[in-house]
Fold this sequence. Notes:
Number of domains: 2
Largest sheet: none
Order of helices and strands: HHHHHHH
Oligomer: single chain
Number of strands: 0
Helix content: over 70%
Structural class: mainly alpha
Amino acid sequence: MCVAYFIFYLIGFGISTEAAGGIVGNGKAYGQDFESIDYTRWIISFGLCLISVQVQNSSMAERTHLGTHIIYSFYIAAIIYPVSASWVWGQGWLKQLGFVDFVGGGVVHMVSGFGGLVATIILEPRLEVISNLNRLQQQKLRRQVKIQVNEKKKQMRNVISNQVNQIVGRPAEHHKDKTRNGNG
Length: 184
């Protein structure tokens, strides 16, 4: 995220503003000639850029090394997010066509979603997680079956014990189960 901060400050904010109907903005960059309103716009724009960076990096969680996250963050903050933001919020070509973005639904969420999808397609599914879930489910199923089998065994012991007691002539209430006494 530190990479995204510096890159968006140096490059991204200038690209994302003042597109004037074009594809890439030509706004203020490097903090040069910033007025107080420009700092406010930069903070808001950076927050939205950071959301985009974080969502896309989250799609790669536990599958890539730190260096990959840093490189991906660099490209998102320097090129991908600023260009798409300039199309709408920087008065770019989409804005000129009448596109209206409501609360970042197009710029932030669509860019983030598609970036995450691309990363996921490139990295392929996490099969080890799926197989671990299957192992966990199998272990849980085995435990459940074992518990049910032990309960059935206990019921069968009690039925057999009661029948033996009836044959021998002892009352069933005096019978002690060996498993309760710890003997069996």
